[in-house]
Write a structure and sequence with these properties.
211 residues; alpha/beta; two-stranded antiparallel ribbon; binds zinc ion
Length: 211
């Protein structure tokens, strides 16, 4: 009995995460926005999922996203990420455990579900320690966000790069979220379809977007 109690306590302490820590120079309004995005991400609920979503996350919803994120991420910092257009990055001296947000993260035009996706995307960069490759020179797809993607410097070959899990989450929200508004689902589908194009193998795109 005592052993069982001890084991239960040990297991529950493994399951709980230390709160995310924000570096001191992160502005309060950025921290507030990010905290609300994380709460949104963890609070997503669904009861069914696609095969690829199960492969990436295990569970169908925010509880699995929390595990996925917190297995790797401990700190949130602010940076320009060397690119005024990028909203976040995951390189630098605290590469093991920090996601850096830029001022672009605060742009009112970014919907919340997209910012949630960015967290999963950057978390993958921490895991993989690789950046993206150029889309192929003869790549025929064009993005509504970035225009023609041929030679665009942000593609993955297949679902095993940084785009895979975030895009799978967006499709999951669009199709299976049980506590999302229609606006959130529509935003999720729009960005899922657009970011899916950054995976240039056609068969991989089919796997990530499969129901
Ligand atoms: Zn990336």
């Amino acid at each position: 009995m005592i052993l069982a109690l001890f084991l239960a306590l040990t297991l529950s302490s493994f399951a709980a995460y230390e709160p995310l820590e924000y570096f001191r120079d992160v502005p309060p309004e950025m921290e507030r926005l990010h905290r609300s995005d994380i709460e949104f991400l963890y609070g997503l609920r669904a009861s069914k999922q696609s095969e690829i979503h199960r492969k990436f996350f295990g569970g169908p919803d925010g509880r699995a996203y929390e595990d996925f994120l917190r297995a790797r991420v401990r700190f949130i910092g602010i940076s320009d990420c060397g690119n005024p257009n990028s909203a976040a990055c995951a390189e630098g001296i605290f590469a093991d455990s920090t996601i850096w947000l830029t001022k672009s993260y605060m742009k009112p035009s970014l919907p919340q579900v997209l910012r949630a996706q960015i967290m999963l995307h950057e978390r993958m960069h921490l895991d993989l320690r690789i950046e993206h490759e150029d889309c192929p020179a003869d790549y025929p797809l064009a993005s509504k966000i970035f225009g023609p993607l041929a030679k665009f410097p942000s593609c993955d070959k297949d679902e095993n790069g940084s785009f895979g899990p975030g895009v799978a989450m967006l499709y999951q929200v669009a199709r299976n979220c049980t506590n999302c508004s229609e606006k959130v689902k529509a935003d999720a589908l729009y960005y899922a379809d657009e970011y899916l194009k950054h995976i240039y193998q056609e068969e991989a795109r089919a796997r990530v977007s499969a129901f």
